[in-house]
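Take a specimen:
=====
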Amino acid sequence: MPLSARNALICGSIAYDNIMVFPDRFRNHILPEKIHILNVAFLVPAMRREFGGCAGNIAYNLKLLGDDPLIMATVGDDAAPYLERLARLGLATAHVRQVPDTFTAQAFITTDLDDNQITAFHPGAMSFSQQNRVQDAAASVGLGIVAPDGREGMLQHAREFAEANIPFIFDPGQGLPLFNGEELLHFLALADYACMNDYEAQLAAERTGLAVAELAEQVRALVVTRGGDGSDIYAEGEKISIRCAVPRALLDPTGCGDAYRAGLIHGILNGWDWQKSGQLAALMGAYKIESQGPQNHTPSRAEIAERYRAEFGAPLW
């Protein structure tokens, strides 16, 4: 069965992002000489809650592209609003496990007028991601991704994808510091593809003792994103440079990497070359940065195709 006729299994986090705005500057309330006994409170009149988490974000963008991804994640007792949202979007929750007596993973982000941020992250149910098993979904899966999640779950799901002969992307993201060099090399030995931003790629190089180009030799393709400088795809002995799609506004980068990864997954599922896959990935990242929050952009497939043609001068579908 061709990959395009099968689902992608998205292993990763589901989370709430609680975003607060402090209408002043942190530096006006923190005494540098007293930093060792820091005790501050910030009044934050503005607050919003966004649906996030890498698995949720990637699946959301794949749905925009017309795919039917499967989410494999763990959530807590407070997950009802998120589960209801997934149902409204038509995203299956058969492999979203609710862990009793836990909270859904969530970030608490406070931003000041200088765009400085103070963030606290509670993993909650994410720490139990190893309770999910890839084999429970394997029959209908043609491609997987191991995105940031609980440490043990990431290790287990990578192993299970390999055992099931399901090609997958290793996407360590903010979870990369959890692993030493030997473990990172083990992930790459199991994976078919890897995707990191430039900082993560450099950290992986330092921990493994391999240059980025040598890391690329461990997988069929290594994708390194570089923010506004585009991305590079190392595949088949070549480095393919992908320029950014031009955003119409710069509102919020949160979730751009996940939108990019959805474009890559769609391209791999459909057997596209890396140039086209990377260009779609770049376009999805542009859509994301144009709206607040990781899951509030709503282009139709027709709009995506039209903008892709205008941006890159070629048909998409």
